[in-house]
Amino acid sequence: MAILLVISGVVMCYLSFFTPPLGEVAPSVLGYFGETLIWAGSVFGLVEYVNFKTKHQDNLSM
Questions:
Q1: Chain CA centroid to CA 18, Å
Q2: Which residues neighbour 23 within 8 Å (Cβ) at sequence distance 6 or greater?
Q3: What angle separates helix 2-15 from helix 27-61, to the nearest 10 degrees?
Q4: In contact, 48 and 14? CB cutoff 8 Å
Q5: Nearest-angstrom CA–CA distance, 2 and 23
Q6: pLDDT average, residue stretch 17-26
Q7: Measured on CA atoms in the order 45, 38, 13, 9, is the torsion positive or negative?
Q8: Sign of torsion, CA 52 55 61 62?
Q9: What confidence score (pLDDT) does residue 58 get?
Q10: Nearest to 12, CA basis, from 27, 31, 39, 33
Q11: Per-residue model confidence as pLDDT tens digits over 23-61
Q12: Contact 28, 62 (CB under 8 A)
């Protein structure tokens, strides 16, 4: 899910170069891209945290 958000943000930034005014990225697109990066980073961080905690719990029980 997080990877799809990052890809959609990159695609929106790329496509905004071809909409009027040409060559300018709208602030709303940059805002969306920033939000997707923050959300994707938090998802990746949460997944890594859960993986670390579960592996750490397994090592303690041995």
A1: 23
A2: 17
A3: 160
A4: no
A5: 27
A6: 80
A7: positive
A8: negative
A9: 65
A10: 33
A11: 787 888 888 888 888 888 888 888 888 888 888 776 666
A12: no
In this structure, the chain runs to a length of 62
Between CA 2 and CA 20 the distance in angstroms is 29
Ramachandran region, residue 22 (left: φ > 0; alpha: ψ -120 to 50; beta: rest):
beta
Report field, pTM of the whole predicted structure over 0.85: no
Give me 3's structure tokens.
Answer: 């990877």
Higher pLDDT: 9 or 50? It is 50
The CB-side HSE value for 22 (13 A sphere, CA atoms) comes to: 1
Q: What's the one-letter identity of residue 4?
A: L
